[in-house]
Write a structure and sequence with these properties.
The chain has about 475 residues and is an alpha+beta fold. It contains 26 helices and ten strands. Among the domains are: about 1-190, 2-Layer Sandwich (Beta Polymerase, domain 2); about 310-430, Orthogonal Bundle (cca-adding enzyme, domain 2), CATH 1.10.3090.10. The strands form two sheets. Strands 1-8-7-2-3-6-5-4 form an eight-stranded mixed β-sheet. It has a two-stranded parallel sheet with strand order 9-10. The longest helix has 22 residues, at about 310-335. The structure holds adenosine-5'-triphosphate and magnesium ion.
């Protein structure tokens, strides 16, 4: 019933009709989220707003996660106070954003994002950068895309403009009530991920919602509602219209959700990986590609669980490695020498990747370093081994080497050698060094640098 009404609201006289939806109010004794579980900064912000006479609720992912017994990453608050009114109430706050302004309220080291209820045209896709990007790309009118400026709205409109029903629940810490305008609570209990409104329209408005669908379904192990899922297969190409930096942020969220393995599987199941990781299919078909990628994703998930730092460059280097290897081998087979072949392969693979998903340069530089270091691990003679140990990226290169050993690409003995070598005493290390068996190194010294050699000045040339 409510859904039928919502689709009417979405299609025609949206703003007015929407005002008539009454929320279902779920009391604390039913939903079970306790006041003590809520972040104290979020409580302070909502209480202060309410004391000043405004409506204020914790909203979005935090409510969803609390109901699922998970610890929220961050807290968002929604209110009917304008950004200026919010800013006026909190000394440590600042207004951000150009078109749709939000307020960041700081308590201690924490920041709570406070947004004013938004109307139907507004969405997370209305970020300034997104709007600018679309305007630049589609100077002429393109149907379905949200281009107009945001407007404030009522609470129910704010619920309806959100992405999924389970992300549109409002929690009032002072009463302990959850306000539910669109059956989000039921979907949450049933483990269903359902987009709000007409799926096609909502994906057209903001294609990133498709990626979010895959991410939440995988992360929460929720069932994607069939109507929410169906259009994704044909609409994936709309991701091309998303500004590269937003796409990259969204993919990082997916890869570092703690459920990268499941998320990537879901992405492939929906056919969405073509738009973000165009090489994934080929890589998974490489002889050891799938094992390597699976292992890298598994280790990433473990590190997140253990609260260890994770590096986007390392993970992207791992995701693309087997294509670098395959390309480099092809180039060698065509007559190129190993080191220039490796460097050309790195460039080619990155080029293909960034055409779809732009990885920021600071990461690609790092990825190339990690890949480039790999050849040096084969060199276990005196000077070379010590030089590698002293390299600022040794740790990342070594972790990558271990991944290669564990996946079966290399003999584990090499990984163990470096493990012992890096932790050994001077005497131990001296005893471990192997004779320098690189005759070409000497030849190279006599010769001027060849034009084809890479700009990389590492000892890699000795491999040549
Ligand atoms: P996470 O755990 O990843 O932070 P989240 O649901 O909090 O999940 P955010 O990206 O922090 O996700 O967004 C906060 C809320 O804003 C969402 O819960 C949702 O209600 C709304 N939202 C975010 N992105 C969109 C979007 N693209 N379209 C519509 N609503 C969105
Ligand atoms: Mg969030």
């Amino acid at each position: 019933m409510i859904r039928k009404f919502i689709s009417k609201v979405f299609s025609k006289a949206r703003p007015k009709a929407a005002q008539h939806i009454e929320p279902r109010i779920i009391p604390e004794k039913k939903h079970g989220v306790r006041h003590g579980q809520i972040n104290s900064c979020a409580i302070k912000v909502t209480a202060e707003l309410q004391r000043a006479g405004y409506a204020a609720f914790v909203v979005g992912g935090a409510v969803r996660d609390l109901l699922l017994g998970k610890t929220p990453k961050d807290y968002d608050v929604a209110t009917d106070a304008t950004p200026e009114q919010v800013h006026h109430l909190f000394r440590r706050s600042r207004i951000i954003g150009r078109r749709f302004r939000l307020v960041h309220v700081m308590c201690g080291s924490e920041t709570i994002e406070v947004s004013t209820f938004r109307g139907p045209a507004a969405s997370a896709a209305d970020d300034d950068e997104v709007a600018d990007f679309r305007k630049a790309r589609h100077a002429t009118n393109e149907s379905g895309r949200i281009l107009r400026d945001n407007v404030f709205g009522s609470q129910v409109e704010d619920a309806l403009r959100r992405d999924f029903t389970i992300n549109a629940l409002f929690y009032d810490p002072s009463s302990g009530e959850i306000w539910d305008y669109i059956d989000g609570y039921k979907d949450l209990k049933d483990g269903v991920l359902r987009i709000i409104g007409d799926p096609r329209t909502r994906y057209q408005e903001d294609p990133v919602r498709m990626l979010r669908a895959a991410r939440f379904a995988a992360k929460l192990e929720f069932h994607l509602d069939p109507a929410t899922r169906a259009p994704i297969a044909q609409m994936g190409n709309l991701l091309e219209d998303v500004p590269p930096s937003r796409l990259f942020d969204e993919i990082l969220k997916l890869l570092f959700s703690g459920h990268a393995q499941r998320s990537l599987k879901q992405l492939r199941a929906e056919g969405l990986h073509h738009g973000v990781l165009p090489l994934l299919d080929v890589i998974l078909e490489q002889p050891m590609g799938e094992r390597f990628v699976t292992l890298a994703l598994h280790q990433t998930d473990l590190r997140i669980k253990e609260d260890k730092p994770v590096s986007p460059a390392f993970l992207f280097a791992a995701l693309l490695w087997h294509e670098v290897l395959a390309t480099s081998q092809k180039l060698e087979a065509a007559g190129e020498r190993p080191i220039p072949a490796l460097h050309q392969a790195m460039e080619q693979v990155i080029q293909t990747q960034v055409e779809m998903l732009a990885i920021p340069r600071r990461y690609t530089t790092n990825m190339k370093e990690i890949w480039g270091l790999q050849a040096r691990f084969a060199q276990r003679s005196g000077k070379r081994a010590f030089a590698l140990l002293a390299h600022p990226r040794f740790r990342a290169g070594y972790d990558f080497l271990l991944l290669r050993c564990e996946s079966g690409e290399l003999d584990m003995e090499l990984g163990r050698w470096w493990e012992t070598f890096q932790h050994g005493s001077d005497v131990q290390r001296a005893g471990m060094l192997q004779p320098d068996t690189s005759p070409k190194k000497r030849r190279r010294r006599r010769k001027p640098k060849s034009a084809g050699a890479s700009a990389d000045t590492t000892d890699l040339a000795a491999e040549d």
